[in-house]
User: What shape does this take?
Amino acid sequence: MNDLVVGFIGFGLIGGSLAHALREQNPKHRLIAYYYNKNKVNSGLTKAVQDGVLDDIVFDLECLRECDLLFLCAPVLSNISYLSKLKNIVKTTCIITDVGSVKGNICKEAVALGLGSQFVGGHPMAGSEKTGYTNSSSRLLENAYYILTPTKETKEGITEILYSLIKSLGSIPVILSPSEHDDITAAISHVPHIIAACLVNMVKKADNEDKMKTLAAGGFKDITRIASSSPVMWQNICLTNTDSILHFLDNYIDSLNEVKDSLSANKEEAIFDFFQSAGEYRDSIPNTSTGLLNKVYELYLDINDETGAIATVATLLATNLISIKNIGIIHNREFEEGVLRIEFYNQNSCEAAALLLRKHNYTVYER
Assistant: This one.
């Protein structure tokens, strides 16, 4: 696209990552972000200006009048409330989109306000348990599905423009209806987040002496990692995608009751089938970074318990220009192979590291 004036309302992990990607795509884009409190400016916004990612911070919504493209990146309920405030400000040619995990409510509100023709719901299926601009990066969007949900009134040309832009940023745009999107995300993201939080709270309540916390294996931390996400964001999601979430929660509860009954009745075959069916379906899921629950690029390896062992591995990777996101010893390896866990920023780095380490006679376990 030509040089654009792009506005942001809300500027955290996703907004910051979009801004990074837009800045890299075309340095001439003018990127501005709105903040509601001039006397207490968000530190992430200030840093974004210092980094050259943002051109300016504005404190009056009227300053967004010049925008050609406007991203609503606040929590879901806040995004919806901003639409009515923007109705008489944005120009008719401005494309308005959001990045929330729920699409039905905001698309309906856009139509009700007369903004349906210029609104396209958006949901980049990427993220992290970490939040804020300081954790943002254009890499977050690379090869990630980016769902677009036009309203029933959205002009076709506007959808095409946004589709092309998202694709140019390195994401994979997919067009869905708002209701289809909300059902899918309830099943593969919203309910899993609730389950993860329930598991953590269950252990917390039972862990009177912190023994469970101390002995928690890597498997427990892996399946509950998403429970560390923003509570405000997930409160908003649950309050706006309630029907779809309740539907799939009911399905999950039915499944739990079936397992409970099988255990109570000692149904050996049913228990075996339960785990076999789950394993077969999970193994059929493509091992890519484009799912909604963000992919972790990691490998494990055996190292000797000696001074400098970790430093040797880190130096080997660094000298071959392979960046490490995280590294650490696994003390409880009940369900893990390898004593050293290394996490990378992308799949290419993970694969290159595995090849390099094996060349140097390390035993590597990939997941």
About this structure: The radius of gyration is 23 Å. The longest helix spans residues 178-206. The chain has 13 helices and twelve strands.
